[in-house]
Amino acid sequence: MLDIECAGAEVEETIKRIQSQKGVQGIIIVNAEGIPIKSTLDNSSTVQYAGNVHQLLMKARGMVRDIDPQNDLTFLRVRSKKNEIMIAPDKDYFLIVIQNPTE
Amino acid sequence: MTSKRPKSKEAHKIKGKDKKKENNFPTADEGASEPDHPDYIFPLVLTSATQELFGCRADEDLTGENPYKLLKKEDIVQDMKTRASVSDFSPIKQLVLDYPEEELLLVFDRDFTYGQSFYLVLTVEAKENILKPSVQGDDEEQINHEEEDEEMIIPKTPESRPWMSLGSEQEIEEESVTESRPRLRYKISPLLRRCGAPVCFSDRSALDGKEGFVECPSYQDKSFSIREMERHTAIQASSDTKHSSTQTLWKYPRNMWTQYESREFSPEEKEHHLQSENLKNFITSVLTRFEISLQQNHITDVFCDDWTALCEDDGALTGKTETQLKEYQSFMDLHFSKEKTISHIHWHPTISGVIAVAMTERLSLEERIDNSTKLLLNPSYILFWNFTDPINPQLQLECPDDVLCFQFCPSDPNIIAGGCMNGQVVLWDISAHVEKLQDTRSGGKNISNKLDKNNVTPVVRYCAVSGIENGHKAPITDIQWLPETFELSKLGIPVENPSRISVQLGTCAPDCCVLFWDLRPPRVVSQSLTDVKQKSEEKPLENPHGVPNTFKHLNLTWKPFIRVSLPKIGSSGEYSPLKFSLRDNTVDCPTGDKPPQNTDREEGCGFAQLRVPSAKQQKPLENISTKLYVGTEDGELVYTDWKIEKDNDSGRLLSSKPIHRLLVHDTLVNTVSRSPFFRDIILTVSSFSFAIWKEGVTSGPILRSACSKMLRTVGHWSLSRPAVFFIGKEDGSIEVWDLLQNSHEPSQSQNISSAAVTCISTSSISSKQHLLAVSDRLGTLHILQIPWTLRRSSNSERQIVKKYFEKEEERLEYFEKRQIQHEKEKKEMEAEQQRKKTEPVMPLKQEEELEAEALKEYEQFLALEKVILKNMGLLTETEDRSDL
């Protein structure tokens, strides 16, 4: 029981650590299918981000593996006019962080 | 001949019959149908003994495939002799003996075609036939069912057979033509006497007479019409086409919709995921990547193009070199401007190139009093100038007295409100003359036409004045329309203006009050409504002097509905305002919050029809500030609220006391103007200095200029650059102040005229042309072009200026703090001094005590030194003593 509680707390702590960086607007943890698990944004934005990022991630990963099947995607950064979206994929989950870098 | 035909047919038939008969003979496939065996076949039964004897055992020697056996005649005869009547061959004894050849054919008749299992072929011919060519024929004979199904047509060359007469030769003989007797010969010759006689030949036409010739025309003999039995015909195969059609079922279109929801986890599932070990590992592994990227972004913006960002600001310096205000045009009216000065300028809000100036007498107060009779005869005017005609003004507005300030109504440019020297508020309506103003603006050709006509400028009389006793008691120095977004209720609360027309205006005068006026007819009791209606019916169109009826309801009865008095803070008396400034005003931000012009709206749609709405219907607006700044005659800037409060004691409506007041200028304030870019930045100009204030900062002005030698008469913010403003001076020059360059001196100064500048106003005709209108004391209006450097603002200028003001504000705060601290320190110092004074005087003993104390300390020091040296092991006892 203790282990499980620690795990939950660690996740929280890590999220706080990322949140404390300058300019971070939101953090979303999504499962492999694109269903959000935890988010610091409101529900509608979360769902929107999760859905769109999932598709983009599949495409990017597909592209990387297509070029070299031994390779795999580790990190994706999308820079836009207003902010930057960083996505780290994994087998079961992904983590999305939105930052406003010019602040 | 005719008989030949049927013969041929019969011959055919006969031939066919013959063929059939002949065909019957060799083929054996019809053998099955005959129950009787033909003559040449003799079915017989062979016992097993006989079979063994002759080697023709059924199904062993002779099988279905090989049914033929040739038996020697001698053997058969021998068998017959040995076994006599018991022999199977006994019935055909004679036939066998008669058989010409040596060998007889025995055929195993498997299927009992002829009734027995064996048969003997009796004739040679048959044997030959069966054995040789039609071996297959025998197969057919035996296997009956096959013969009928298969058409085993064996191509046989027809064998020639002797012709059998069937009677056809007789017909031929009958038809043929033969000589029945020898031919007779006859010779015919004419009589001899005719021979040798002279003959005369003559011509005769063949056509003469009917006997000239014998005709043998062709005619159709029916006997010879041959019927074509054969005909050449071309045949083409074509596919069978069929026309067919089909139609789909028309289903009624129906609107359908679906709605989907994104998948979500339930809270338990989320919890479960959050607690999972998997997630924890993932996050810890991924964390460093994120931190690196986030920090990278924070350190530097890799996508920022420094080069392009750099060159933007440089453009201002390199390009244009002109910095001077160029004179564009100047207007001077010969008839009306003599001895007059311009008191106020206002650009026409919609028609570009039209500017209005108010002309007043150039006299001081004493001179006015002296010449009061003369002044009554010389009415004062507001003149409209158009750029196309620098000599003649377009329009003249007649005023009851000298107008010191006026303004066009922001929602309807045909209405002009002005404040007069006698304290009256005047309204003009120039709707009738607007086309003239617009025409002359566009057409230069019209000028030539005008020269022919009388050069009479139309004069428009004012259509309403306020009542003298109700208005100000001093010359109105400032008049402003309230913007159309809100209006004021009776208590001064800003409420929503449903009609979106500016209907209220504010005035101020040195008689210590600020008045608010409403253009609409006041609410009257229902009884008098009927009176009003009757009056309006009786005199519907009375229009003396050609004055439009727009403000008939206000004429001479106009009263302000709010009176804001300005009692002094901390002392008795009141402030005397000269200029005031509202936060949401239309003077300084002409292009500000105006809603888009409604061209469908009727112009001047009758202010008479508008009614002051009841207080209950009005919706108060929250975000309108009800505070205003007032510049007074004594050089103070007063910040007050115009809302009326009810005094609890007396029940009267009183205006609230001013919130604060700041004395910064030495003489009267002649300009209070808000920056068009920053609503809370105010510029105040007085004769020797000017100051910039920020609303809310009460400690002092953000910026205060040094005292100048030359009197400053007027100030005006630039419309396009947030950091620039213009100051007019007494010697007729204009100072351009650019806060980004210098805040202690003007960035440039230019002399415009020889007389003092009385008013400045800016207008932007187009993005390339910004004009500055400057009027001077001699009554000349100068129009100047603002150079590129002064009208083009860089992108970040607003930010920079804002930061500058904020910095100044911080400076003020810092000063305040320091001042407070300084005071505190001062107080403390004074307190200490006080304390010192009250303490008793110390005697000289103190000195002795001090010496004793010093000595003690020295001894202590020596002891300490000894101890330390001992500890360090440097001191020996001998030295110790020597030191002492």
TrEMBL record, chain A:
Q: Which residues form the Roadblock/LAMTOR2 domain?
A: 11-99
Alphabetized GO MF terms:
dynein intermediate chain binding
Keywords for the protein's UniProt record, in alphabetical order = Cytoplasm, Cytoskeleton, Dynein, Microtubule, Motor protein, Transport
Q: Name one Pfam family in it.
A: Robl_LC7
What biological-process GO terms show up in the record?
A: microtubule-based movement
Record bears the keyword Transport: yes
Q: What is its main location?
A: cytoplasm
Family in the record: Belongs to the GAMAD family.
Q: What does this protein do?
A: Acts as one of several non-catalytic accessory components of the cytoplasmic dynein 1 complex that are thought to be involved in linking dynein to cargos and to adapter proteins that regulate dynein function. Cytoplasmic dynein 1 acts as a motor for the intracellular retrograde motility of vesicles and organelles along microtubules.
Q: What is this protein called?
A: Dynein light chain roadblock
From TrEMBL, chain B:
- Asked if the record carries the keyword Transcription, the reply is no
Superkingdom is Eukaryota
Residues in the signal sequence: none
Q: Where are the transmembrane segments?
A: none
Q: What is its main location?
A: cytoplasm
Q: Where is the composition biased (Basic and acidic residues)?
A: 8-23, 823-839
**GO terms, molecular function:** dynein heavy chain binding; dynein light chain binding
Q: Where in the cell is it found?
A: Cytoplasm
Provide the Gene Ontology terms for cellular component.
inner dynein arm
Mention one GO biological process in which this protein takes part, according to its record. inner dynein arm assembly
Q: Where is this region: Disordered?
A: 1-38, 158-177, 823-845
- What are the entry keywords? Cytoplasm, Repeat, WD repeat
- Descriptive protein name: Dynein axonemal intermediate chain 3
**What species was this sequence derived from?**
Cyprinus carpio carpio
